[in-house]
Amino acid sequence: MRKAALLACDWGTTNLRAWTLDEAGGIVAHREFDLGVSKLKPGEAGERFNREVQPALEAAGLPAILCGMVGSNLGWTVAPYADCPVGVGELAACLVPVEAHAAWVRIVPGVRGPGITGGVDVMRGEETQLMGWLHANPERCRGRHVVCHPGTHAKWMLVEDGKLIRFATAMTGELFAVLGKHSVLKSEAAAEDEAAFEEGLAAAGEGDALAARLFTARARVVGGGAPAESTPSYLSGLLIGSEVAAVPKLLGLSGEEPVDLLGDERLCRLYARALDRRGVAHETFDGEQAAIAGLFALYGMGGSR
Fold this sequence. Notes:
This protein is an alpha/beta fold. The chain folds into 2 domains: 6-140 and 288-302, 2-keto-3-deoxy-galactonokinase, substrate binding domain (Nucleotidyltransferase, domain 5), CATH 3.30.420.300; 170-286, Nucleotidyltransferase, domain 5. The protein has 10 helices and 14 strands. The protein has helices at 44-56, 88-92, 126-135, 172-182, 194-203, 210-214, 216-222, 231-250, 265-277, 287-302; strands at residues 6-11, 16-21, 27-33, 64-67, 82-83, 96-97, 105-107, 111-114, 120-123, 144-149, 154-160, 163-170, 259-263, 282-286. The strands form 3 sheets. It has a 6-stranded mixed β-sheet with strand order 3-2-1-4-7-6, sandwiched between helices. Strands 12-11-10-13-14 form a 5-stranded mixed β-sheet. A hairpin with a 4-residue loop joins strand 1 (6-11) and strand 2 (16-21). The longest helix is centred in the C-terminal third of the chain and has 20 residues, at 231-250. The protein is globular and about 65 Å long. It starts with 5 loop residues before the first strand and ends with a helix.
């Protein structure tokens, strides 16, 4: 039986995923907890980590590394943002220590970069997946790559020679949820109508005038006779299609560069369809595997400090 050497956690807004890893980074055990930081009281994260997470994985005393919103002002302690350009070495140098039932517990900082309006953009958690994806294959640390991480706040990341240079965030998933619950487009139907999704992709155009394009989701039903239950699928296609068309250009790209999709398999499939429609080459990679690899790599570079 393999022996656990590290406790690795991806602690987000809504839940916590935790793994114990052996000395080679292989998974020994895995648990998920309904302990998203949005559900915790101030100062509660450390207590719940000691009382619930470590014992559940028989990890009391093991070194631990955590990423995600646990390092925000909603989480355990604020892990200040590392600035772009940033690679795995720079990120490991910024790990933030916290007190727990172990000799070594660190939180991965988020990343801050130049925003599309002249301000800043930020991420927490996606940077760890990106570093794991890079660390898994040395070839990815050469040249330029465009990496898209679909999600509630999707990230489009420009990577050059193993470093995150710049990124842009699109609130596509959150916008879909808000419109589906609190607008004239609200619906209880599942977004499972493939034809309506494709119709939405077509309606996205180049992603411009999104507010006007969104109303087509209403008009196609009340004026065009489309079934109301197809609205969520149409809306999903419209929002994802608009993002895929417009956001890469905000990073100074042509929009024709190959894209590496990194994240949840179901969401990546939807983005792949949008990229296919535009004739853009793409490849998909598992986000959970990348998160584990990233946490292990960061521990390896920062664990002896």
